Structures are given as C-alpha cells and as structure tokens.
User: Which sequence fits this backbone?
C-alpha cells in the first residue's frame, strides 16, 4: 500500500467513524424528541394560557416571562434578557364591514380585520365606492380618474400553481404591505386587501402594512377570500355599491420589551456561537401557534434534548426568542447590534418560522463551500425525512446577522401546504398543530446544530 | 464527429426533447389540479352526503352509485361495475365500557368501539377481571393461569420513534388482528386492544380482526389511547377491578356489491392497462375521508385532468374504486380474478390508500430494472415535492395483481405523520383533509401514469 493510499484509507476510516457517531447521536436526538418531547405541552401553554402576543402588549410581556422560565426548566446554563424598544399597535374594537347596495335598500356584512399598523377609520366609519385592482401595478392602469375618493380593493389572489406556497405569498403580499401608501397617491380613501391565503374561507388574515410620512395615511383592512370573491362578483353588476368599514386601531408610544436568550455553553469553543430561534410575538387575533409559537417551543426543546441526553456541543448553542418580528423586527436588529458591540463570533444561525409542520429540509444563505458541507450531511438527515437542502432562505430575525456579520443563516423548511390556511388568523391555534410534526421540526434543528457544532460549517 | 458520437448525440437530443415534453405535460397536470381540481368537492360529497360506507351497507351501495356518476362526469370513455360478494358486518348500538372498582362502589366510563368482525357480548354485557399484555408474545409469559376467565387488555403502544408511522402500525397491529383468537387459546373471555395510533386522545380506532373457527370466539373492542393509559395505570393498584363492556354487533349473510371502474381508452396501446385506484368502502364510525375517500376522489380526478387537458395516453388508464378493502379485500380479489379470466395485460397498478396528505413519493414492488426506470423520473417529479422512490410497498387492493400476474405495483406515499390520528375513527372527516394536499396527491399519480404510459416501465 502506498503512503498516500494509506493516508486516504485512514482518513476514510476516521470520517466514516465520525459519521457513525454523528448518526448515532442524531438517532438519540430524534428518539428523545418523539418520546420525551416537551415542545407540544409548552406550545399548549403559550397558546392557551397566553395566546396572541403582539409586541408591546401585556401578553407579550407574559410570554417573555414564561419563556425565561421555560428555558431555565429545559436546563439552559444561563438565561437572560436583551432589552429593546418595540412598536405598540392595538386593534381596538372588533372591525366591521358592510356593502350597501347602490339603492341603499340592503347590505351584506363581510369578514374583515385591520392590517397591522393601520390608522383607524373616522369614528363613524368610512363609506365610499369600491374599485378593484389586481395588485399594485394595476393602479397605474386604473389611474387617478377611477381611484380618487374611492376605496381600492386589492384582489390579486395568491398563485395556486406554485408548489412552494411561500413563493405565492411573496408574489402577492406587496398589496398588503404597500397597498395603502400606493393607492393614496391616486387619491384613494381606504384599502381592502384580499387575504394572503390559498384557502377559500371566511377568515380575514392580518399582517403588517406600511405608510410613508409624505403620503396621506388611509385605513387598510384585510377581507377573507370568500368575502373578496363575493365583493369582486357583486361590484361587477352594482358598480355604485358602497363599502363601509369601521376600525378604531391605534399606534401608541413604543414600549420596552425583550429578546429571551438561553444558552448551553460550548465545551471547547465557548466563544463560537450557533444561534437558533423563532419569534415570540404573534398577531393578536389568534394564538400564534404555527406563527411562531412552534419556532419558540422547538428552540427551547433543543436545550432540553441536549441536556437530557448529556450532549456536550463544542460550540455554544444559543436559543433566542426574538421579539417583534411581525411588525418591526426590532428584536432581530437589537440582537445583531449587541453581537457586533461584543465582537461575538457567530458560526451559524437557524430560524424556525414557517410553521410546525413536517420538516422537509433547510433553506440557507451562505457561501458555496458551506452549502456543499451542508449537503454532505444529507445522507445523515434523509432517514428523518429531510431531503431538501438546495433552496435559498433564512429567517427574518437572523437576516441582519447575515447582512451585517456575514453569518451563514438557515431556516427550517417544513411542508408549506397548510401554512397560509392559518397564517395571521384566528384559527392559528394550538389545535392546528400536530404533535409529531412539531417534534420532528425541533429534532431536525437539534440534529443540524450538532453536525455544525462538531464538524464546523 | 464520429458516427457513434453522432448517434449518441442524436439520442441525447431526442431523450432530452422527450423529457421536456413530459416535463411540460406534468406542469400542466399540476396546474390544472391546483386551479380546476374537483377532488376536494367530490370528497365533501362522499363524506358529508354518504359518510361511513362499510361493505354491505346501504351507504356502500350509495357510494357505488355516486362513483359511477362521478366517473361519467369526469369524462371517462366508459364506466362499468364489477360484481362481487362482500361480508356484511354491522356494529349495532353504540358500545359501552365501564371499569368498576373492586369494592364495586364506583365506576369510570371508557371510550371503546367494537373491532370489525367481532361477535357481540352477551346481551347484558360481559364483566370480568382484566389482565394486561404487551402484545401477542406476552400471552406466553402470562400463561393460562393468569388469563383464564379474564379479559385480556393488549396494550403495546405503536412505537413513536419510527419516522414512518406505517412501520409502527405494522409492528403493533397484530394485537388487533389476532388478539382475540390468540387470547382465547389461554381461556380469555374477551379482549380490549389499545387503539392503533400515536396520538394521545379519546378516540377509539376500529379496524378488522379475525377468528379461527376451531377456537372459541370472544368479543373484541378497541379502547382510546387515553383510556388505555388510564386503565393500565388503574389496574396496577386495583388488581381486582372489573371491566364491563357491551356490544351487539352482528355478521349478516354476504351481500352483493361492486368495484366501480372508469376508463380512458389508450390511443395506441388500448390493450395495455394502467390501473389506478383506492377503496370505496370505509369504516362506519367516521366519514372515511383519508381512509380512503382521498384515494377514490384522486382516482376520479385523474380521468378529469386527462380529459380537461386533452391528454391522449398511449395505454388505457383504468380508475378503480375497489370495494371491501377494510374487512375482506373481496374487490381486489375479484379484480385480479377477472383480469386473469380476460387475459388482460397490466403494465402497472397504483393505489392511493395512505391518506390525502402532501405526497412525498411512491413506494413500489417490482423488478430492479423497473425500479431504476421509476427512479430515472425523479428529476421530473422532484419539483412537485416527490423525492422518495426507494421504498417497497403497494396497496392492499392491487397486491393480488402483483402476486398473481406479476404486475408492477406502486403506492402513493403521502407524508405519514398525521395518518394514524384519524385512521378508523370518528374524526376521519372531510375537515381533516387539506385541499391542496389532496390535489397534489391526485396530480402526482396523474403525472406518474403519464410517464409510464408514454415511456413504458
């Protein structure tokens, strides 16, 4: 045997031995998650005892306190808070919407909800004719002559033929985000936006929208997809129908809030950090189960699993419950600001913010060499249903880490078919989450973190 | 350029052109399923207007008639029935179970249901002490001295650490199938079987069980997992507690029923048949939505898609709604019997009987060459989330085709995490099925059938 061959052989043996150890550890992680898992009961508490928890709300504060305790109970070596100021928007009384026939003799009630950040309507409500637009671009075609003084009804549906529902969301969501400020440029007095979902039902989907201080602010609501279909159809024949809606939401002064952080100290590379997290805030109209209670309890679960199994990762594992992803991203920004200040070394960051569904892989934003390393672990992860490591992605809370520190970022990629049925609605509840699907997601992140910690990225 | 190279080049070009055509056709199939799909509304009808439809029941007959009509409406070139005789078991009045404390001063009600095929208890119910067994093998350990005169409580849970839940089912289900006849050998007077599910809840799961004519027949019921956990715990301290249950199920004489078959005639190989199906019968306690309304409406959908798109497959596509998969398999047996009689040429058969969840791939039972061909299509199917073509499998209704005619068989493999939450229960309802997940399953089969029909297997 030649020397180089011997070397190669030795290398192969040791690589394979390593892979075997990793494989055994991953098996232990999944077994523990699926038999002793606490993520499901934690999610029940977060959803049922606290519920919706928009940044700045008393529920958000309760969630901070509960997460602190839950991370301690999971066995974290240290748990601490990171203070940040967050926006404080409140929905107020339940919103109302009606369509009056042009002869004013009858009306139909429609299910709406205010978009997050919207101003209120006048106290008596706002009534005007409606003009339908298929997305933002359509405003140009309609022009000021058709829009002035009216309520713009943005009705571009999410594209059902995209297999990845997040792509369909990405294509349609600009109506929600920028609809009010764009329509106001043409003299619109309010906007109604078709809910961001592929489901046909009566649930309006809230979500953040934005204003521009130099453009008149007009109130904006979401309408359920069934409501949108009805409205679109109705105004085809009754062009003078009046849309009425009433909302008394308000933006209050910023509030103090926190990211909650729990760590397992690295055994040999304590200063090298792997961040894993989700966002703790959730829209006020539901329980924030998939969005993003799932990501929170999965991140806490990683601490529990490592401690229960006595796993001692080389790097420091930092579970982060980010505050205010939904309407400001202040927690994510604060996190990177402090990381820079302390000159921290971040090896990788992983977020779970796409629902507690069966995991299918990880998307990532990182260099080609790192991506190749990630893909080299496919054979270790495929037995657990993780097969897709190709896509670009990364969570909203950890994007600043990538942008400002160049940290490789990843996002857990669960099956996406059901996500937008629940997203930002009253039905995003604990009952919508399946225990095993949730547990598999936490275990998948725990396994990937182990591979990164032990083998580098 | 050498001649062989030229040939190779020409071959590559034509193969790639073919792949492009196939790829475009597959895209059209998925687009149509996701925009014009009728499988979801068909499922609603089957579940809500007909409901549970066990072989021999009036509902099964209604389902036969409805499926005939639905296949016609989907545009089948021909629709016909295949007569077969089926068992006719009825559940009777709602089952009751109570556990009386040994001092007979109090009792607790437990959720049970009769296993399919069980005899009734005596009219006044059956009361006896309970002995717990962890699976069939455990009977030997306990022996006649511990079992005689008692009710055996089979309480081996499904293994939660298996990622594929069907493997966990396969390991535990022998308790349900053979528990009564095995326990009777030791003198047991009845059996209670832990429900076949990984969920922790109050739903008892029915399913077929079997007797042996040479062994005393004893009544058998399923108990919910929460009930099983309670019972197991309770009898640890109160060993003389009495279990009471009452069921008045009956087996009536065999009934006449039917497989329902709809065909699209092959354009150039009419005599070469690709079968695709599910089973039309469903347990009486639920609506049979995932099991197997999904497979039925997906099979009908394939006809609709091909006709809507004007696809003319070379081979004959035969959608089959098999009767009596749940408690006899008579439809599947009749189908192969007639196929043999008519000397039919079956190219492949595909079944969907694992729920209307997001499809992940196809399992199969066929030769290595055929499996290699199947895997060569992976790149065409992966964009639709179909990534797993490795596993062995095939549906219960089409297994006889493989066994007796050597037909290559395949089964649609949806994500399996939620399946046993619903399987054989009252909550296997229309509401438990997600529209897109269901539609993707039908489109996946339509796409695979196209590839087989055009390129052979």
Assistant:
């Amino acid at each position: 045997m030649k020397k180089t061959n011997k070397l190669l052989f030795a290398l192969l043996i040791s690589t394979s031995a390593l892979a075997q150890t990793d494989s055994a550890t991953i098996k232990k992680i999944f077994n523990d998650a699926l038999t002793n898992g606490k993520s499901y009961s934690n999610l029940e508490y977060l959803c049922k005892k606290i519920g919706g928890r928009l940044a700045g709300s008393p529920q958000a504060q309760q969630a901070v306190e509960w997460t602190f305790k839950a991370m301690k109970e999971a066995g974290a070596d240290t748990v601490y808070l990171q203070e940040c100021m967050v926006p404080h928007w409140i929905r107020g009384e339940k919103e109302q919407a009606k369509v009056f026939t042009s002869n004013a003799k009858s009306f139909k009630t429609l299910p709406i909800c205010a978009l997050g950040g919207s101003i209120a309507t006048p106290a008596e409500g706002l009534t005007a004719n409606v003009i339908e637009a298929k997305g933002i671009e359509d405003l140009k075609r309609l022009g000021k002559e058709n829009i002035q003084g009216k309520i713009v009804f943005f009705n571009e549906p999410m594209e059902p033929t995209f297999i990845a529902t997040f792509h369909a969301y990405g294509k349609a969501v600009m109506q929600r985000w920028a609809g009010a400020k764009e329509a106001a440029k043409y003299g619109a007095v309010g906007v109604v936006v078709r809910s961001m979902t592929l489901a046909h039902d009566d649930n309006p989907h809230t979500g953040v929208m934005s204003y521009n201080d130099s453009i008149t602010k007009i109130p904006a609501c979401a309408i359920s997809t069934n409501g949108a279909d009805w409205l679109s159809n109705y105004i085809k024949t009754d062009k003078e129908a009046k849309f009425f809606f009433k909302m008394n939401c308000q933006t209050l002064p910023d509030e103090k809030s926190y990211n909650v952080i729990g760590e397992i100290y690295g055994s040999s590379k304590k200063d090298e950090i792997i961040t894993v997290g989700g966002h703790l805030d959730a829209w006020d109209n539901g329980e924030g189960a998939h969005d993003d209670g799932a990501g929170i309890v999965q991140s806490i679960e990683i601490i529990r699993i490592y401690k229960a199994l006595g796993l001692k990762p080389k790097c420091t594992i930092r579970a982060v419950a980010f505050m205010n992803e939904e309407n400001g991203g202040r927690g994510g920004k604060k996190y990177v600001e402090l990381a820079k200040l302390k000159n921290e070394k971040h090896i990788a960051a992983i977020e779970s913010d796409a629902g507690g569904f069966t995991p299918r892989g990880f998307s990532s934003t990182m260099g080609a060499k790192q991506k190749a390393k990630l893909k080299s672990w496919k054979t270790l992860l495929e037995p657990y249903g993780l097969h897709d490591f190709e896509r670009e992605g990364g969570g909203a809370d950890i994007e600043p880490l990538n942008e400002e520190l160049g940290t490789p970022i990843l996002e857990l990629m669960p099956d996406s078919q059901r996500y937008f049925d629940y997203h930002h609605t009253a039905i995003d509840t604990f009952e919508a989450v399946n225990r095993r699907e949730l547990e598999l997601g936490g275990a998948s992140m725990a396994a990937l973190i182990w591979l990164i910690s032990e083998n580098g990225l």
In short: Chain A is about 40% helix and 25% strand. The radius of gyration of chain A is 24 Å. Residues 28-88+253-455 of chain A form a domain with the Aminopeptidase fold (CATH 3.40.630.10). The mean pLDDT of chain A is 96.
